[in-house]
């Protein structure tokens, strides 16, 4: 195992960096999309509610692998070319937006309506109400679910290996077939995923504790 | 689209049936393996509780595709040679068990202490309390997350395509190679998954309402 790491460590680390970069990019792109969808659902306007509901239903109701394949092949069918990495980020973003919107919806609903009504009476703009009153409180409520979604996203990013993005799973596949040592190679990749999951979960707990104490003062 | 379905409809139907069968088999494995795991998670002895916790965290932190690669391509190093379907069911089942164990544990923990104590005062044995008080109460709490997890397994079963199991996603890929167009096959597959997921969700809602009636 150690010789395998010594020989391929750099390649695997490179793959790990791609995994983190793609997941991070998708999480960030999915965030405003998710907020937009959540606000559409809460708007009460029938068309907005139905459209965002249909969007969520599709992206949550079909396998992410199939979604990634569709996002990867659709531009080609329309005569466009899309770099696999970009297709991967788009696919993961559109998927996580659906899951994030559910988290934001629940978080926004949990902030008592009386507070935003009071803020409106005091003359705050809608934007100020969202940014200064609703979001800071909602973030605290949503954080555990968001950390969970980030973990899921990193696990899901393993599937972009199928569209030839050289993240860590793809790198492990290449090494496994070159060295004929699949057991050890995939075990190393597994440990890398578990380490990221543990780090992220730990960081989430730390941040939660921080926000909880900040909220009390 | 008409001729597409005429030509490949049978293939898709068979692949869809494979997806549903494999998911059901994986679900049974997951639900059963999770039972001793959940009891292990609640054990007073760390010799049992720690390995159970490690198993759950391993399954919840690992991407299914890596677990499948380990079982299917890494298994022979242990002398375990599985065909793709068996590796797929085992992978899906052992992966799902980690999630189901946590669902069971939460359900068992949520049964109010007072009910357990009342049953004990009434002279029920520990075994009777577990079977007749804890399990029925926990079942109602467990159902909604269990349905959610069943839906997840159905969606995750698409990953079995990467170890060559001829399920829906794999067959969609094969058809796209035949027709030199990927969109129609993958959209067909997506639609079938979507229908199955929605059906499962509706069935779950109906079951929940049914159990809720039993509350009185």
From TrEMBL, chain B:
Gene3D superfamilies cross-referenced by the UniProt entry: MetI-like (1.10.3720.10)
Organism: Bradyrhizobium niftali
Entry's localization field: Cell inner membrane; Cell membrane
Xref: NCBIfam families: HEQRo_perm_3TM
Top-rank lineage group of the source organism: Bacteria
SUPFAM superfamilies according to UniProt: MetI-like
GO molecular function, one term: transmembrane transporter activity
Topology in the lipid bilayer: Multi-pass membrane protein
InterPro entries attached to this UniProt entry: AA_ABC_transptr_permease_3TM, ArtM/GltK/GlnP/TcyL/YhdX-like, MetI-like, MetI-like_sf
Protein name in UniProt: Amino acid ABC transporter permease
PANTHER family referenced in this protein's UniProt entry, alphabetically: L-CYSTINE TRANSPORT SYSTEM PERMEASE PROTEIN TCYL, MEMBRANE COMPONENT OF AMINO ACID ABC TRANSPORTER
Keyword Glycoprotein carried by entry: no
GO cellular component terms attached to this protein's record: ATP-binding cassette (ABC) transporter complex
Biological process per Gene Ontology, one example term: amino acid transport
Domain ABC transmembrane type-1: 16-201
Spans traversing the lipid bilayer: 12-42, 54-73, 183-201
